Amino acid sequence: MGVRPWTAAMFLLPALVLLGALVVYPIGFSVYRSLFDAAGSGFVGMDNYGELFSDERIRTALKNNVIWVVVAPAVSTALGLIFAVLTERVRWGTAFKLVVFMPMAISMLAAGIIFRLVYDQDPERGVANAVWVSIHDTFAEPAPYPGARPPLRSDLKASGGGAFTGRTALRPGGPAGLPLVGVKPPDIRGARPAVAAEPRPGQITGTAWLDFSRGGGGRRNVLDKGEKALAGLKVEAVKDGRVLASATTAADGTYSLPADKATGARLRLPASNFALAYNGVDWLGPTLVTPSIIGSYVWMWAGFAMVLIAAGLAGMPRELLEAARVDGASEWQVFRRVTVPLLAPVLVVVLVTLMINVLKIFDLVYIIAPGSSIKDANVLALQLYQSSFGTDVNEGLGSAIAVFLLLLVLPVMYVNLRRIRKERRR
């Protein structure tokens, strides 16, 4: 400060006043308020801090914060490192970095709204489930008539698990009809009119059709003219729990079973004919809501990590990399033994920055998590908001959560300050 300390004090005074008003006073008042009850009139000492570890909601929030701190910074940094290293050798690397970094220009509010739609359960709205359902349906054939069922007073009855079994035993000569209702219009679009099966020697024949006539007037459990055929329906002959024969209905709805095997058995339509369409994963359900929200955070912050790591790569001495390659090191060995150790200071900066950031994560959880899963996705910052301004207001508990959150951030800040001091000494 030299010989003019008062001059320095006058210059520092505005900053100190702002710092005291905006930082020191709120921290001090939060500590003071955390020692009182919800009304602020009764001194409770450390009771609010004890409730931090006895309240189930806060324990869930603390557990989720641990998951956030461990997973989100590590995944974001790892992806940023991979992107930065791989884009160094491609001509369009700058364009790729621009695309990856673009989510940083979006606010947390907008990103939350985007991913609330991405994770929508309906595959026609949610991109994640649209992709997942497409992959699933590629390897698993969907049911031909989901939700269909026999009409009232039909020979078919429910036999458990979604299957339907006939009441009477099969016999040669008499066609075994399979009327169904509840078929969705898209499932019979382009279907041909059903044809009554003709008796055939040595065969048990029948027809499966939609028992519905446009304009009304049709007879129940009777194949009327113009009623649609149900093609692709699997039909089984079962006896004593064993499948003796099976067939699939043709385009006109007809099928046939060998009489020597099916006689005396009962007709069954397996549940695979009627299983509801696969609607994907419940991304925002109690089990996956936290990993899903972390995924949206990584989408936003991987670009931030990539830019910082790319800056570190730009300043790395290239002769060390070339020397390792000349000595016979593979690219993986160069990356693991040379690149990563040289980038260690930058990686620490990115990790510490993201750890501080996720400790106070609020926006994404508040917007993305639906009401049914909000308690499973809870984090400390969200619980702080709910305790201080929610329906069950307890500002004493909210202040205790704020102080506790500050104590969690302090070790990370201390590590960051030590790193900055070491760099200044070099």
Describe this structure in words.
By secondary structure, the protein is α+β, with helices and mostly antiparallel strands. The protein folds into two domains: 55-125 and 283-393, MetI-like fold, CATH 1.10.3720; 156-273, no CATH class. It is built from 14 helices and eight strands. Strand 1 (156-158) and strand 2 (164-169) form a beta hairpin. Helix 8 (289-314) packs antiparallel against helix 11, helix 9 (318-326) packs antiparallel against helix 10 (331-342) and helix 13 (380-389) packs antiparallel against helix 14. The model has no long low-confidence stretch (mean pLDDT 88).
Labels describing this entry:
426 residues; alpha+beta; MetI-like fold; 2 domains; five-stranded antiparallel beta sheet; three-stranded mixed beta sheet; 8 strands; 50% helix
End-to-end distance: 24 Å
Question: Portion of residues in helices?
Answer: 40-55%
Broad shape: elongated
Tally of alpha and pi helices: 14
* Quaternary assembly: single chain
- The ordered string of helix (H) and strand (E) elements is HHHHHHEEEEEEEHEHHHHHHH
Poorly predicted regions: none
Write the layout of secondary structure elements.
Blueprint: H1 5-33, H2 47-52, H3 56-86, H4 93-101, H5 108-118, H6 127-139, E1 156-158, E2 164-169, E3 178-180, E4 203-210, E5 234-239, E6 242-248, E7 254-258, H7 259-262, E8 266-269, H8 289-314, H9 318-326, H10 331-342, H11 344-359, H12 363-368, H13 380-389, H14 395-425
Parallel strand pairs: 3-4
Antiparallel strand pairs: 1-2, 2-8, 4-7, 5-6, 5-8
Helix pairs in contact: 1-14, 3-8, 3-11, 4-8, 8-11, 9-10, 11-14, 13-14
